[in-house]
Amino acid sequence: MLCLLMPFGACTKKHDHKGKTPLVEVSGKFLYQEDLQAALPLNLSADDSVLFAEHYIQNWVEDALLFEKAEDNVRDGERVKALVESYRKALVMHTYQEELVNQQLAEDITPAEIADYYEKNRSVFILEKPMVKGVFLKVPLQASGLGDVRRWYKKNTQDAIEKLEKYSLGNAVTYDYFYDQWRPLEEIEAMIPAKSWNSDSNYLKQHRDVELKDTAFHYFLHIEEFQGKGDEKPLDFAQEEIKEILINLKRVDFLNRVKTDLYRQASDKNRIIYYYLNSDE
Fold first, then answer.
1. Domain spans, the chain
2. Nearest-angstrom CA–CA distance, 48 and 87
């Protein structure tokens, strides 16, 4: 599609494009095929892709021409440069500060701190939807060994889980083990056909082992743990959220300490010179 948009014999001047494919040039500035490809939305039809590309190129050319004209006519060019440099400085500092926070401050948040914050603020962490832990299997209707599956999927033991995993390798269409992480109940229910408990949000809280079938498959679901809508979030589910809260609470003090340390180090090495302090006036 992009090849159709490229004029024949274009870009005959020698220029190092560093491996990129130029589509259009305005006063020595280039729009490349790779840039257009990155901007192209997914799943467009061929006709829509061509239309998008034509509009994108046209807009790029118009912006390039407008920018060129603006550069020639903006009177206070030095002020604009100062604003750009100020923005660049703020962006670089912000990026560095976020990297520091993520690398250092995040590592300082201990499990004990998270647990302590959770215990003091349990009422804040409330589930908006039911969450579950367990295991789910989808097995062809004619699969062998279904009697064994009926025994294994209900047990949260190492032996039963290992046997279930081995069985699933050669027989299950879907095997989803989630004993170790909370999953939205609706996500699990979406893998099961028409369910008889749709009108009862607490059905799976009271019936932890469910077997259903349709014309092609058996469905086995075991719920090991259930937390309903409006219940407190379990600690292992809320811990990442709590960690972000604690990071934000400590962010200001942490960044102030970083600035203080940098100032002290620079002062110790005599890198800071205050000219006004040496003035005789």
1. 2-73, 76-126+233-281, 127-227
2. 37
